[in-house]
Design goal:
Shape: globular
Strand content: 5-15%
Strand order of the largest sheet: 1-2-3-4-5-6-7-8
Radius of gyration: 21 Å
CATH topology: TIM Barrel
Number of strands: 8
CATH class: Alpha Beta
Largest sheet: 8 strands, parallel
Structural class: alpha/beta
Order of helices and strands: EHHHHHHHHEHEHHEHHEHEHEHEHH
Helix content: 40-55%
Number of domains: 1
CATH superfamily: Metal-dependent hydrolases
Length: 390
């Protein structure tokens, strides 16, 4: 058997969302497993749980390999039986007794050493200062532009006022503590960003405002497209990467215009700007990998593949590492419900990466030192270097 271990290599999560311990502990303990699946997290973030029905969601959860392994592994960590009832009770008791000790124990167990945090979800936003105190691990903030656009457009009387105010907000965030900017344009008007003239953006802004801000591709899209060009100018000026949600998501996604291929003209126009494709274009991973292969400053972030691909994780990870330069692949979890997702994702991600790299050694694509270097980069080194945190 090929010898390669990534045990002890620190994990820095390139994409996740903040929580508050009070909010987590205030949720129904018995719904823990339902919240940590991809289906559960998406239904929760889009407010559709009641329409689906809790009993149906539970039935789907119990048939999901990720929930199965979470129950078994967390029960083993807590020293309880892996049943819903026993796990819910033991988890809630341990977490509520001493949140700091509980989380620190999880991070020590999985080797978590840092978080790159997208502040844009949940809304209203979690207080970042408090989150940094509660997280028990270093937190690096990512400034999401869409909440800023929503707030600023209410007082902007013209498109030019909105653009300048957004640019100022980005500059202020970078001067404070933001290590990157983030857009979820795929949830608004789509990733097929086009060059939009100032006059067209001004006219569209007037129509968009008069209509009450609907996310239309006739009025909202010209405004949002031109704003993104301005954000990229600020990113270059402040030396910040831009994170772009790319691929699927919850029910609000504009799925017809959410693929990596939609972004290629825009990214080609900004070849000198570092960009992270959040989720790597999942479920169109081959497209995302191809874009990162041909565009030198496009990076891939692994969440959704991590951890929710479960039984398919090795195959998809092998695809991404086999196509794109490996120093442009960043580990991430997209945790957005309960912090145990960070723990499980780091565990299964490390294990899958070890298996894939061992196969690379056996097939003579890599030697052991090369494989080790790739593993260290993917788990944390690449995201630290890209964001100037190394």
């Amino acid at each position: 058997m090929t010898s390669l271990s990534l045990k002890g290599v620190p994990v820095v999560d390139a994409h996740m969302h903040p929580w508050s311990n009070d909010a987590v502990l205030g949720r129904d303990p018995d719904g823990f497993l339902d919240r940590i699946t991809m289906m559960g997290m998406c239904l929760l973030s889009s407010g559709l749980v009641e329409r689906v029905g809790a009993s149906h969601l539970r039935e789907m959860t119990d048939a999901t390999p990720l929930a199965m392994t979470m129950a078994r592994r967390l029960a083993d960590h807590l020293g309880c039986e892996p049943t819903r009832e026993a796990l819910s009770a033991a988890r809630h008791a341990a977490y509520s007794a001493d949140p700091a000790a509980y989380l620190s124990g999880l991070w020590t167990d999985c080797g978590l050493a840092g978080l790159v945090c997208d502040e844009g979800y949940p809304q209203p936003p979690i207080d970042m200062a408090r989150f940094r105190q509660e997280a028990q691990v270093p937190v690096h903030r990512v400034f999401r532009i869409e909440p800023a656009i929503t707030a600023l457009r209410e007082t902007a009387t013209t498109y030019d006022e909105l653009e300048d105010a957004l640019a100022a907000a980005c500059e202020e965030a970078a001067a404070a503590d933001a290590v990157a900017f983030k857009t979820v344009l795929a949830y608004r008007t789509g990733l097929d960003v086009v060059e939009t003239s100032a006059s067209d953006a001004r006219a569209a802004f007037g129509r968009w405002r008069a209509a009450g801000w609907p996310e239309s591709r006739t009025d909202a899209k010209p405004v949002r497209d031109r704003l993104l060009h301005r954000v990229f100018a600020v990113a270059k000026q402040t030396d910040r990467p831009v994170h772009i949600h790319c691929g699927g998501g919850d029910a609000e996604i504009v799925l017809a215009h959410a693929r990596a291929q939609d972004l290629v003209p825009f990214l080609t126009a900004h070849l000198d700007q570092p960009v992270v494709l959040i989720h790597s274009g999942q479920p169109w991973l081959a497209e995302g990998a191809y874009v990162a292969q041909i565009l030198p400053r496009v990076y891939l972030e692994l969440s959704i593949t991590m951890p929710w691909s479960s039984l398919a994780l090795d195959q998809l990870l092998e695809l991404l590492l086999g196509v794109a330069p490996t120093n442009k692949v960043l580990y991430g979890s997209d945790e957005s419900s309960d912090p145990e997702v960070l723990w499980l994702s780091a565990q299964v991600g490390r294990e899958a990466l070890e298996r894939v790299l061992r196969r690379g050694i056996r097939r003579r694509w890599l030697d052991r030192d090369q494989a080790r270097k790739i593993g260290e980069g993917v788990l944390g080194g690449n995201v630290l270097r890209l964001h100037g945190l190394a």
